[in-house]
Amino acid sequence: MSPALTDPPFLPVARPIVQAPMAGGVSHPPLAAAVCEAGGLGFLAAGYKTADGMYHEIKQLRGLTSRPFGVNLFLPQPLSSDPAAVEVYANQLAGEATWYETELGDPDSGRDDGYDAKLAVLLDDPVPFVSFTFGCPSSEVLQSLARAGTRTVVTVTSPAEALAAEAAGAGALCVQGVEAGGHQGTHRDLPESEGAGSGLLTLLTQVREAVALPLLASGGLMRGAQIAAVLAAGAEAAQLGTAFLACPESGAHDLHKQALTNPLFTRTELTRAFSGRPARGLVNRFVREHGRYAPAAYPQVHHLTVPLRKAAARAGDAQGMALFAGQGHRLARAMPAGRLVDVLAAELDQARSAAAQSEGV
Length: 361
What we know:
The protein is an alpha/beta fold. 41% of the residues lie in helices and 13% in strands. The protein has helices at residues 3-6, 29-37, 51-64, 83-92, 94-99, 115-124, 139-147, 159-168, 200-210, 224-232, 242-245, 254-259, 285-290, 300-314, 337-360; strands spanning 17-19, 42-45, 69-74, 129-133, 151-156, 172-176, 182-183, 215-218, 237-240, 268-271, 279-282. Helix 3 (51-64) runs parallel beside helix 6 and helix 10 crosses helix 15 (337-360).
């Protein structure tokens, strides 16, 4: 067994269930608190928020639970996109702006997501866990957080990214399979590698054999039996996003929640249509009409489409919204988050018992 599997647990929680940080207002304090209170680990998503907005959500969450929780940060993105390609895409979206009676956003609204300011807040007033998406922070940042008493998690989508995060000093890794909803957390967005992601169980095994860090497994997990499978494959816990999206405590729009099990939405795909980075979502009109033309330009495309997505939501039009969801979306259960943690834990225990009985036969 690897050292990570024999050391004390990385997560000081009763149940190996982590609520994924879903940006855009989904993973807000009521959802994270409900998961924490049920014995899991809840996460706030600082992405697309100001440092002040993040601080106020942390303060609100601390008022709802005394249990450990985490905050997720987006890494700043390199300036590698083609402004001309963004302009062409903006021209294509002009009809959407007219239809929804709104303006397109400013693609140059910022690339760093207030990263330095958010780090300053988290170092001044530490939280139990901080995770990172879209890259690996510097060794200096990871060491500073560790000295402040914060445990760090870096999202990885390949063994190479896992090795780089281990070398930088990450405390643990979130291994994200291609089944996961929302953005793929690749450290570099390379169009030539698009669609080359690995399924969770394959990737988890590859990463487990490459590094000695504790692992969280993420991607398409909706049932306790799936959690049992990733724990058996070497993960310390499972991170679920889409499973919690349908909960009443989730900040997702009602149309988004309903779409998860609506038979009109038959599949998901990775698309750049809404943000310029590959993100898995339900295939709707917007994805069908614009996905193939969207450039590799994150966060410029994100900023460009924000007003369109907000206008579509106001109009009650799910066909124009970013309905991010994992491949297991049709297994979503609309129940309170604490109850969902209970059900998942019971299913996990049942799966483990069944496996133990099978081994004893």
